[in-house]
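TEACHING EXERCISE
Course module: macromolecular assemblies
Task: Read the component lines below, then compare them to the predicted structure of the full complex.
Student: A.B.
Group: 4
Components provided:
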Amino acid sequence: MTATRLSSKLRVAIVGATGIAGQQFVDALRDHPRFAIAVLAASERSAGRPYGEALRDAKTGALRWWCADAPPAHVLDLPVIAGARLDAEEVDLVFSAVESDVARELEPKWAATRPVVSTASAYRYEEDVPLLIPGVNLDHAPLLHVQRKRRGWRGFVVPIPNCTTTGLAIALKPLHARYGVERVAVTSMQGISGAGRSPGVVALDILDNVVPFIPGEEEKVARETKKILGVLGEGAIVPAPCVVSATCTRAAVLEGHTEAVSVALGGSCSPAAAAAAMREWDGGIRGLPSAPKHLITVLDDPFRPQPRLDRDADGGMTTSVGRLRPDELWPHGLRFVLVSHNTKMGAAKGALLLAEALDRDGYL
Amino acid sequence: MTATRLSSKLRVAIVGATGIAGQQFVDALRDHPRFAIAVLAASERSAGRPYGEALRDAKTGALRWWCADAPPAHVLDLPVIAGARLDAEEVDLVFSAVESDVARELEPKWAATRPVVSTASAYRYEEDVPLLIPGVNLDHAPLLHVQRKRRGWRGFVVPIPNCTTTGLAIALKPLHARYGVERVAVTSMQGISGAGRSPGVVALDILDNVVPFIPGEEEKVARETKKILGVLGEGAIVPAPCVVSATCTRAAVLEGHTEAVSVALGGSCSPAAAAAAMREWDGGIRGLPSAPKHLITVLDDPFRPQPRLDRDADGGMTTSVGRLRPDELWPHGLRFVLVSHNTKMGAAKGALLLAEALDRDGYL
Amino acid sequence: MTATRLSSKLRVAIVGATGIAGQQFVDALRDHPRFAIAVLAASERSAGRPYGEALRDAKTGALRWWCADAPPAHVLDLPVIAGARLDAEEVDLVFSAVESDVARELEPKWAATRPVVSTASAYRYEEDVPLLIPGVNLDHAPLLHVQRKRRGWRGFVVPIPNCTTTGLAIALKPLHARYGVERVAVTSMQGISGAGRSPGVVALDILDNVVPFIPGEEEKVARETKKILGVLGEGAIVPAPCVVSATCTRAAVLEGHTEAVSVALGGSCSPAAAAAAMREWDGGIRGLPSAPKHLITVLDDPFRPQPRLDRDADGGMTTSVGRLRPDELWPHGLRFVLVSHNTKMGAAKGALLLAEALDRDGYL
Amino acid sequence: MTATRLSSKLRVAIVGATGIAGQQFVDALRDHPRFAIAVLAASERSAGRPYGEALRDAKTGALRWWCADAPPAHVLDLPVIAGARLDAEEVDLVFSAVESDVARELEPKWAATRPVVSTASAYRYEEDVPLLIPGVNLDHAPLLHVQRKRRGWRGFVVPIPNCTTTGLAIALKPLHARYGVERVAVTSMQGISGAGRSPGVVALDILDNVVPFIPGEEEKVARETKKILGVLGEGAIVPAPCVVSATCTRAAVLEGHTEAVSVALGGSCSPAAAAAAMREWDGGIRGLPSAPKHLITVLDDPFRPQPRLDRDADGGMTTSVGRLRPDELWPHGLRFVLVSHNTKMGAAKGALLLAEALDRDGYL
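Instructor-supplied answer key:
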């Protein structure tokens, strides 16, 4: 299968293809009905080598591939190019899974001519950049027109949020839409795959342990959640006027972020009503190839959700919520626990779902 | 070493001696200057066997001993008696580490003649029973006189709180004393040794996982924290008028409970002021044999406290606090993370420290 | 879907249905083309309750289900009966996943009228009982005729081996067939799910640890491997005349048994020749519904096989072999590492594959 | 405390002081009666910063300190120099804990004037370099005189073996001395701290897993064990004429190497006799400050040794042996399991013990 033979599909480039998020893009695009991998790009170090070789540890020769299924055979031979030399015009769409500093420099170059869907944080907080979660705030997408015009680009940059924000914003959205979210206290227990690229979390740090700090994470969760729950104003998003207070910790869990949430709502909402609101939420993503059956799955078993048991539900694309109960901290308080798959809905597959929605809605 | 040779020491019985908490009593009383183990009691199943035999797994013969140091040689030969047949008058003090239903039935029998210091929850919520943490609320101890009188006992029952309450109440106390604690939101990530007796947490449940529910735990934390921070009134404790809202989870950590805390205070308190208040707190336990140098240790490294690195600080008797920072959730909000050793300060060694304080203060 | 509607399928009973192996039977029989679950049986304690209820922890109410996919909806309502009251004539085949002592008592009762395929060890070592691994020694199956005749049964009992034996015997078979296996030294690092029923491995025992002893396991591995590699003689299996020396340990791995094997062969065999022999081995199971594409998968990456990455290969039904290299311990020595899925090929799914083979070959 | 005030102590330099092994040197030398830390050296990157600063992660600021006890306060302020600029004459002894390539280049420079005790592998296999384990083969030490003379050095280089070799050679030595070791098959399950410097083992690789390959390790174990069990000949060690065949794996264990050993002896030796030989072995290290009470501890509990329970026995300096049983693989076969602390006896503390022995015997 080569991109040239797939004239009916959009040709995509994956940049940062050797990292965890990049691999997840490769994995998620396996047999995709609408997008075909045309270019793989990574750092200068990997450039010029076939993808299968670039995945190997320089010292030990081990294949450093993090997805459950083996890499698709046909991509192993694709030559990796340096991200800095990617000519975006050769493809229809760029999936960017690079580090933030690289994203800041290179994403505008690609966006000059092509849409860039990014997992990087570099442009998340710019005024003319919407921070999109399909099913939650696709109504912010028209801001992309403003971005294009203002920056003189033919393409655009659209980032997805931090993986810890994703599950939180999804679970809050149906409550916010109906009752108004006023205050949020959240403690995350995050899986180690969320630490991203090599070396990621060192085993000596996390075995038999909890690490109570992830630099920058809490600020991202607060800022991004408010932006995503906000409304599209004149050329910018007006953040939701709520307070979000987070403690982000790392747990000895391979994948899946668990979050204990306490929320103050603007009106009375029983646990049953909250469950119904979450279960009924239709975020307008039904029918997209990567969409879960339900954006949110509410579990009645009080011992759920658990990251190992629930992270892969619905292809890792649903947010599992449980332990819904009143919270006497606030007049209209509610507590719950959620599990979200940080490297699926929270990263590449979530970005892919976003691209599918943008494609459907005419943005690509 | 036998009890009879130790005429200057108080003779103690440990009931529930084969469980984790009971073993920690045995371990903590090794070479104790003031108490000597005279009697070991456990369930009917263990009765009549030497302690060293009773510790063995019936099926496999493995020694089921959970403390870091091997059991003291001289106790391995002590015959275990059934708790139900313990004649409390043969000893000066009973350490009770039995399950709650057993405690409910047997502790009053022992208390009829002797003081009972208990890790069980059975009597924690009775009106005339103080719930004591040395260094925090020893001023509630006079309630024991009321208890004795009301129940016609020569002894008394004094429980320590749930291990998750312990660290929380200790960390809050200096803030409560100075500023008043109004609201508390806490998420715990608890070590597996806290699940107590065999079989405890099953490995298949917790490896690569977080379990978001521990039955009964959240109610205990709320109720006990308010009682401990309360004031001694007429024949009863008047609970502190604060709200405590908890989510208790189990993490893949051997020992040590980590708690992410968000607290609303009655007045303005900077992180630095909070740290100072905690560091300076002198709970009146200095000089007791099992007392830590500091009841609370405040760490400046943002990656601390971590359960594996900090649980054993000061013999597992200090509460390690870190990540002190403002919390915009509330007008006078503060956030922090604490680590407390659940089977040391939070269980047997904490009960031992309490017994030492009661001994010093003339209650034994 | 109920059994009565499935007249073309064989009706099966699963006994021990609430344990791990029993659950794996339930899971493996989901939509099976040839067998339909008609009866679920377990201990007296579970009897009379719907399966979905019997799976719940008595104390906490948690669903104790260990498979990755949720239990098939239609079985949750099936009433559980006591294994002792199972009338085998109501079904066509019994899958027995009970403890050994229960198997010893009950399997003959069922076998009097129906075939019993068992994961229990009770009858593995009887003279007229073959110990079958499909793809390895189905040529031992005719011994079932002897068994029937000798015992006056209409059915029979056919056990599968211990889960640690399974991977070893499979990997050795192609070598044994061509070169003759003379001596085997094996060290296993076994996953915790292999410890079977509640409570299984206690988390406090295995986190940050290796347990170097599994009672009875080493003897089983030695005895069973020799029987499986043996030849069918007059009314009995003549064991292979090799020495098998095992050290069986438990590792902090959820599922999958890893085995480091050193083998002395009867003739010269290069690693490449061994790999070819393993890859080419056709055990006569092709086309069976639960059969893997390859009974053995040989990996060239020196860091493989790894239990987490390889246990689920080919539905958990292939044995992954790697690190093939000469072993100078013996004249014709070979070393390798294997990973086998202990609760799939090594338990229920392996038993199911065996039943499929026996069905095809006219034994059912 | 500064080195200049400690005129009665030998002044030592630790090179590679920021890595795990280097930290263990710093930790082990705390209050040492005979050696005082005078110089800390590391890579160019750390040079010029106080040790406490050099230990911090560049990106996150976290203190990367791996020992249980906090670093001694007085060393935190010591300036770190670049190893390449160490003037060995400023100290009396160099402890080298650098990577092998660095060792190859720099150790000869230091050895020109001062003794170098090294954990690196660079010179382990040179003809005039003994590979010493105190208590096992101090009778090889006179080879250092040959080395000095041949190389024209005033000092010398003496490496300790690989941490996996250490426990194996110690356990075999009493058997070898009495019966002769002819063949050894060993499977190691190694703790992650053995992977050394940053980043060490990545958490995503080892959680819920076993990694069956450690590059170079098996060759080291074979070669080093034979050299250590060999005899001192004319200007070189004559290796023991035995075969050592190893499979080295990495397990999800923080510290401690577990090894399953199968050994063919030259004569008949019952498990009891082997246990007695091990228990009685007096390696001539009694009385040295870092020496364990017993070089080998033999455990009767069949579930021991376990790395978490036994690694710290006797300060991490004893090798714990259990599961001694006959091995029918060979005429005089024996099987056992051992646990050795890879970063204590197997690294810095072992090197320190060696230095103590060399000091006592007049080599320093």
